[in-house]
Design a protein that fits this description.
The complex is a heterodimer of chains A (about 475) and B (about 500).
Chain A lengths: L3 E4 L2 E14 L38 H13 L7 E2 L1 E5 L9 E5 L8 E6 L5 E13 L3 E3 L8 E3 L6 E7 L6 H18 L11 E10 L9 E6 L2 H20 L7 E6 L4 E7 L9 E2 L6 E2 L2 H9 L5 H10 L5 H8 L2 H11 L4 H18 L11 H12 L5 H14 L3 H7 L8 H14 L1 H8 L6 H11 L6 H12 L1
Parallel strand pairs in A: 12-13
Antiparallel strand pairs in A: 1-2, 2-10, 2-11, 3-16, 4-5, 4-15, 6-7, 7-10, 8-9, 11-12, 13-14
Helix pairs in contact in A: 2-3, 5-6, 6-8, 7-8, 7-9, 9-10, 12-14, 12-15, 14-15
Chain B lengths: L7 H9 L5 H14 L6 E4 L1 H17 L9 E5 L26 H8 L3 E6 L39 H8 L5 E6 L5 H7 L2 E4 L19 E6 L2 H9 L31 E5 L9 H16 L3 E5 L7 H16 L17 H12 L2 H14 L5 H24 L2 E5 L15 H5 L6 H5 L4 E8 L5 E8 L4 H15 L11
Classes of the chains: A alpha+beta (about 475), B alpha/beta (about 500).
């Protein structure tokens, strides 16, 4: 169902396009050999060119180019064999050169598309306009001194990819799904860690509203929204604000706005008149970047399986449900875990254990998959114990709880606590005999036609066995004994 | 013969034969520089460094394993960053800037054993053709006009400190940079040799940028051979400069004694505009006649877009400089003049740190890149630049080397140019086209005008064919047998 805002004059549609700034995973910066490591002391990772010392020149880091091409391929996009680095000129203390080296008229990646998965189980295709490479700026620290601003250039010159979507996003949920999908693809590819808290993935949202069927409205750009929750909040607030302005007879002015997380609102950063004239022109210190088709094809050949392909394979080859496949492939970590745990085991059983037991338990204790006390192989071992009937599914849950608690292996726990299933018919027959003896009245009732009591005997037998009797055998032998 | 009159080639012979020591040679030039101090050739003198280099050079000569240019005293344009030595670009904004790094070109020369006597004066950020725009005072040419010996003349620019000190025998050679003529024009005005190699031949790493797509380091010396010897130790691919050419560096002295018989020398008809200085035109004809006599074929060529070169250059170079000089913002190094807020600090710093000509070019450059003007100016200029390059490509189908004047006249007095900047910009009318095309060019002193001042002729070669250009240059040099010396000399 289409997302609309109900105004006083009727329904309004929201139209959005996103610009995602993703920090490239690379050892060194886009144009210098300085490290990109996080958490160093201020200005520890600054090469001469990062500080724009006189006479210093940029040299393109090929590893960053490779990452951008890989990402472009992951976004099903056209790779431009010739692209041009340009200078975006503006003054700011954390921009040492007085310009940012970026790509403007000729980006390295052209149009592409991705499929986003919506909460109602449907999916939608969103067009990618372009991806270009650019330098990050440094950081201005305004809170270190009462009347001075400090500048940390560690981030200055770090490689970013700016991924621009088409204005095809039409609800906050779609925006959230889009960011999640892009982040998932970047993580799969290993081109960006997607960490929004550290600012390694940031989004600017372009928002406009219109009456259904009308042409596109004037847009406002909301800058630097650094979590998916904030993106949803910012869109809801900004779209409502625009509807209110328009219904009040006003006009939307093209603006850059800032999201304020503490109030959940957006406010004007600068109007169109105040917009910078960036005076883009090709950087004369760098030749146009030309790639061979062979270079691109080599990267394509080494490309790993991406979430959509993986999801399809899980459904078609492993027989998983669409829901399970979707949950498992949403993040590469999950898919990796699942595949390691599954190995040659029953995929459906493994999927169920990963999704329902493991992810559920981790979620409860607020842990990431990476922090899981149960490694994939350990979970696999537990699943083996179920499959070979050493323990029942029910007992397995107790074993799993113990594994989470103690980190011990399933086999060790089962052996220690004598939790092996009883599969010996003689032993089970013996327990059943005891149960029947103790409940002679119920046996008589059953035999006189009270079939419903069968469940009672099953329960009593399992209880008497300490939950260890094989339920199928219990059923089978009980039927014989009671008849 | 006095030590300061030696050529580099001759000095190397004497050094290797142990007839002189590097310390003697360098000391003679330090003494000469002191006597020449009135010319204001240096922004910073480095005699101790030079002497220390001479001492280690002598040790190598003693041990019999000298470096190729061991102990040769040179001046270094103050646009090349020098590790531990103040480097100013002749601007107040870099008054106290001491680099922690050495430019690739000056490092290569140091690695070849040279002794740098000091950082040579220049036009501020290499913007000018007179060295009048230096924040560290004007350089006086050692040459005097016969009729008016009291008039102080310019040594050309922007590498005016380099050209003046080499002409006055204060240094055996010097580094320079050429963006639109900044090596060739001062060489012509001071009667020495100056060469701009093909763009990409010498690394720009560590050279303070003016216009990145045009800037190119090159040598000054008093002979073609010395120029080639220096270039041998300046050129070469540098992975730190993405625009440096990944191409083999030849021995630039290898073609000097070759015959030019059969070579075709192009004479561009567009370089003879209405109202051209008659003496300059006559010198040009004389040069062509010498080359014809030496067996070359003189062919008239056409470079049809020549008239657009100057306006094109004065869009592209300022555009690049407006961006290149944005880093001088008072935040990290150099001059900082605090204001009440950030914007005022920027404004104060740049207003006080930059001189008029630099400000003018930053403003022109900012304008031509601005929204709404980019297409009309910058983009159009880039297209014209491509046409100018194409002119040369076509011309080189008909000839091997182009012969032209270097400068439109002899040296002018400090106060003789009008306040109209265009008047000064016209100084580079003959050198700018080759710069826009990235081609190598060299100026050779060939004679004196009636006023007693030197005239130079320019050769323009094919891209990366400096060897052929230098071969023709040697022929001109021999034919011209230029031996005139400036009025003010160290010896």
């Amino acid at each position: 169902m289409a997302y609309t805002i109900k105004g006083q004059t009727g329904e309004w549609e929201v139209v959005m396009g996103l610009e995602i700034h993703a920090q490239i995973i690379s050892d060194s910066k886009l144009f210098s050999g300085a490290s990109t490591g996080f958490g160093a002391a201020p200005n520890d990772h600054v090469a001469l060119v990062d500080a724009a010392m006189p006479g210093m020149l940029p040299v393109l880091n090929e590893a960053c180019v490779r990452q951008a091409v890989r990402t472009g391929l992951g976004l099903n996009a056209k790779i431009n064999l010739t692209s041009v680095f340009e200078r975006k000129n503006y003054f700011y203390p954390d921009l040492p050169q007085g310009y940012q080296i970026s790509q403007f008229a000729h980006p390295i990646v052209g149009t592409g598309k991705i499929k986003i998965d919506l909460p109602d189980g449907t999916s939608k295709e969103i067009g990618i306009t372009r991806l270009h490479l650019e330098q990050d700026a440094g950081k201005s620290l305004h809170d270190q001194h009462p009347n001075k601003t400090f500048v940390d250039l560690n981030r200055a010159g770090v490689a970013l990819m700016e991924i621009v979507s088409e204005p095809e996003i039409s609800s906050p949920e779609e925006a959230a799904a889009y960011v999640k999908k892009v982040r998932s693809i970047l993580r799969y590819l290993g081109t960006c860690d997607g960490n929004m808290e550290e600012g390694n993935l940031r989004a600017d949202v372009n928002i406009s509203v219109r009456k259904p069927g009308d042409p596109l409205g004037t847009r406002c750009e909301v800058k630097n929204v650094n979590s998916i929750r904030f993106i949803v909040q910012a869109i809801e607030y900004e779209a409502a604000r625009q509807v209110e302005v328009l219904e009040g007879g006003g006009k939307i002015e093209q603006q850059t706005r800032l999201f304020d997380a503490s109030t959940g609102t957006t406010r004007t950063l600068r109007s169109k008149e105040e917009a910078h004239d960036y005076r883009y022109f090709p950087d004369p210190d760098l030749l146009p970047l030309t790639l061979s088709q062979e270079y691109v094809e080599n990267i394509r050949r080494d490309l790993i399986e991406l979430p959509d392909a993986k999801k399809a394979r899980y459904q078609d080859m492993l027989g998983l449900s669409a829901y399970d496949a979707s949950v498992l492939t949403a993040e590469k970590e999950r898919a990796d875990y699942f595949e390691a745990a599954c190995h040659d085991r029953d995929p459906k059983l493994t999927a169920s254990w990963v999704i329902n037991e493991l992810l559920g338990a981790l979620n409860k204790s607020d842990l990431d998959l990476g922090q899981s006390p149960v490694a994939p192989a350990a979970l696999g071992e537990l699943i083996d114990l179920i499959s070979d009937q050493t323990i029942s599914g029910k007992i397995a849950k107790d074993v799993f709880a113990e594994m989470l608690e103690s980190g011990q292996s399933a086999k060790a726990i089962v052996a220690d606590k004598g939790m092996q299933q009883i599969t010996d018919p003689v032993a089970i027959t013996k327990i059943i005999a005891e149960v029947m003896a103790a409940n002679a009245d119920k046996v008589a009732e059953y035999r006189s036609g009270k079939d419903k009591l069968f469940g009672f005997f099953v329960g009593q037998t399992l209880k008497a066995s300490g939950g260890k009797a094989n339920p199928d055998l219990v059923n089978q032998i009980l039927k014989e004994q009671l008849s | 013969m006095s030590l300061t009159n030696l050529t580099i080639a001759a000095a190397l012979k004497k050094l290797r034969a142990r007839e002189i020591t590097a310390t003697e040679l360098v000391s003679a030039h330090i003494t000469a520089s002191e006597k020449l101090r009135g010319l204001n050739c240096y922004i910073t003198e480095t005699p101790e460094q030079a002497l220390s280099a001479a001492k280690t050079a002598d040790a190598r000569y003693m041990a019999g394993n000298p470096l190729p240019l061991d102990g040769i005293p040179l001046a270094n344009k103050d646009l090349f960053c020098s590790r531990g030595t103040r480097t100013t670009a002749a601007s107040k904004i870099l008054e106290n800037f001491v680099p922690t790094y050495e430019s690739t070109v000056s490092q290569k020369l140091l690695d070849a054993g040279v002794a740098f006597l000091g950082k040579a004066n220049l036009d501020e950020f290499a913007m000018g053709s007179s060295t009048l725009t230096s924040a560290y005072g004007t350089v006086e040419s050692p040459w005097k006009r016969a009729s008016s010996p009291d008039v102080k003349l310019v040594p050309g620019g922007s590498s005016g400190g380099s050209s003046a000190i080499v002409a006055a025998r204060g240094a055996m050679g010097a580094t320079g940079t050429d963006t639109g003529g900044s090596i060739r024009q001062p060489a012509a005005l001071t009667g020495i040799v100056g060469m701009k190699p093909t763009y990409g031949r010498c690394s720009r790493w560590g050279v303070i940028a003016f216009a990145s797509s045009l800037d190119q380091p090159g040598p000054f010396a008093r002979t073609i051979e010395d120029t080639a010897l220096m270039l041998n130790h300046m050129a070469g691919y540098d992975e730190k400069d993405s625009t440096s050419a990944r191409i083999e560096t030849p021995d630039f002295t290898s073609g000097l004694d070759k015959d030019i018989k059969g070579l075709r020398i192009g004479v561009p008809k567009e370089y003879r505009p209405e109202g051209m200085n008659a003496e300059v035109a006559a010198e040009w004809d004389k040069g062509a006649a010498w080359l014809r006599d030496a067996g070359a074929e003189i062919v008239e060529i056409s470079l049809p877009h020549t008239e657009y070169a100057l306006p094109t250059y004065y869009i592209i170079a300022p555009a690049e400089c407006s961006s290149n000089l944005a880093r001088y913002d008072g935040m990290r190094y150099g001059l900082r003049v605090a204001g009440k807020d950030l914007t005022e600090t920027y404004e104060n710093t740049r207003a006080q740190g930059f001189g008029h000509e630099v400000k003018r070019r930053i403003m022109i450059g900012t304008y031509v890149l601005s929204a709404g003007y980019y297409d009309a100016y910058y983009r159009k200029a880039q297209r014209v630049r491509a046409l100018i390059a194409q002119d040369f490509t076509r011309a080189f189908e008909k000839c091997d080397v182009i012969l032209a004047p270097t400068a439109p006249s002899t040296a002018f007095g400090w106060d003789e140019k009008s306040n109209d900047p265009i008047d000064m910009y016209l100084e580079d009318a003959f050198t700018i086209p080759a710069s826009l095309a990235g081609l190598p060019g060299i100026s050779i002193p060939t004679g004196l005008a009636k006023n007693g001042l030197p005239l130079g002729l320019q050769l323009i070669g094919r891209a990366f064919d400096e060897v052929t250009m230098l071969c023709v240059a040697t022929t001109l040099e021999m034919a011209a047998a230029f031996t005139a010396t400036p009025t003010i000399m160290a010896t």
